[in-house]
Amino acid sequence: MSKTFNSIEETRQLHVSRLGEDCVTLVINYKDAGRSGITLPPSDAPALALAILETAGVEATDMPEDPTHWNDPEALESLASWCLRQSIELKARANAEAKEREELEAEAKAFFTIYTESYGLIANWDAEEERLHDRWISFARKARELAKGSGE
């Protein structure tokens, strides 16, 4: 899918298209001087769309309660802006939680390795059950809390 937009002065065109699965391209075609462009990951598309709406003066509002607003383009644009903001915030939160989980798992694995080696045990983190991982992750989380509490 692609879309092309003409500038107000009609001296440039913005061409937005998908390049495979991994890229969204934005290319500016100049009537006299060639073109330039950038590629973005598809995951940046909601933030780009929100930036365009906000720059155009569209303010995010919650879903209209009055059904007559469903026939109002401005109300729908505001709703789109609100939905994009919610999506961006949810993804950011999920990414932060996934990153924290990954960091805690790395810390838990380190604690597990220190523990098993200190007792001369041969153990493989990847071979252990998920519930054991969860216990070590809880241990790592508690260690973080204690370290923060002691000012480290």
Low-confidence region ranges: none
Strand content: 15-25%
What portion of residues is helical? 40-55%
Distance from N terminus to C terminus (CA atoms, Å) equals 52 Å
Question: Helix tally?
Answer: 3
Structural class: alpha+beta
Topology pattern, helix = H, strand = E:
EEEEHHH
Shape, principal axes of CA atoms: elongated
Largest sheet: 4 strands, antiparallel
- How big is the Rg? 25 Å
Round the mean pLDDT to the nearest integer and report it: 89
Number of domains: 2
> What's the total count of β strands?
4
If strands are numbered along the chain, what order do they take across the biggest sheet? Answer: 1-2-3-4
Report on this structure.
The chain is of the alpha+beta class and 152 residues long. The chain folds into two domains: 1-40; 41-149, no CATH class. Helices cover 51% and strands 18% of the residues. It contains three helices and four strands, in the order ββββααα. The chain has a four-stranded antiparallel β-sheet with strand order 1-2-3-4, with no helix packed on it. Helix 1 (45-55) packs antiparallel against helix 2 and helix 2 (73-118) packs across helix 3. The longest helix has 46 residues, at 73-118.
